[in-house]
Amino acid sequence: MEEPPERWARSWFPQRCYDMLITNMVESINSVLLKGRDMAILRMLDFIQEKLGEWFYEWRKKVFNLDSMLFRINSEGIEFIVDLKKRTCDCLEFQLDELPCPHAIAAINKRYLQKFDYCSNWYSKETWLKIYEEHVNTVGDQKSCDIPQNVESEITKPPDVEILQGRRQKKRHIPATKSVQLKSTKYS
Asked: Cα–Cα distance between 70 and 54 in angstroms, integer?
């Protein structure tokens, strides 16, 4: 009773005690690891690793809601809803290109998933290899081809392009808004 309560009671201490060690956490871990105490040291370490893995999985499941595949992604003040199950995004890029848009990539990264799992099969290496699997025959001499009159009239020709005279300009135009810094030269 000679010491003031600030020295022996946390409730009376004027500041927060960040580095104060208490045994509550240790006692909680000990009660969980009772089953592993009687095991051999390596098996006990495996048991502890499995238990921590379970806890981290449960924590991640609560935080990231792993059962849900619907995400709200805020990009430059605009909110986009991404559904990874249906592979859709409010920006329509994900469903049109069948490639993850930036919002879908953010949602995929949030779940620690692989981005290539959400790409269309058309972009896979196997599909690209199948495209070039067959032999491609060359057309040959176009003059020897017999093109029907109705098809030849529908052939689209390239547009006429006017080729400008003179040498192409090498320096870029400096906009009027930028100031030009001239190097001073000395004349002797």
From this structure: 24
Q: Which two tokens stand for residue 49?
A: 């690793």
Residue holding tokens 């057309």?
A: 139
Q: Find the angle CA(64)-CA(111)-CA(67) to the nearest 5 degrees.
A: 55
**DSSP letter for each residue of 95-160:** HHHSS--HHHHHHHHHTT--GGGGS-GGGSHHHHHHHTTS-------GGG----HHHHTTPPPPPP
Three-state DSSP at 72 gives: strand
The 88-89 sheet, strands edge to edge: 70-75, 78-83, 88-89
Q: pLDDT tens digit string along 59-94?
A: 777 666 655 677 777 777 778 888 888 888 888 888
**Neighbouring C-beta atoms of residue 73, cutoff 10 Å:** 20
3-state SS assignment for residue 71: strand
- Whole-model pTM: value is 0.39
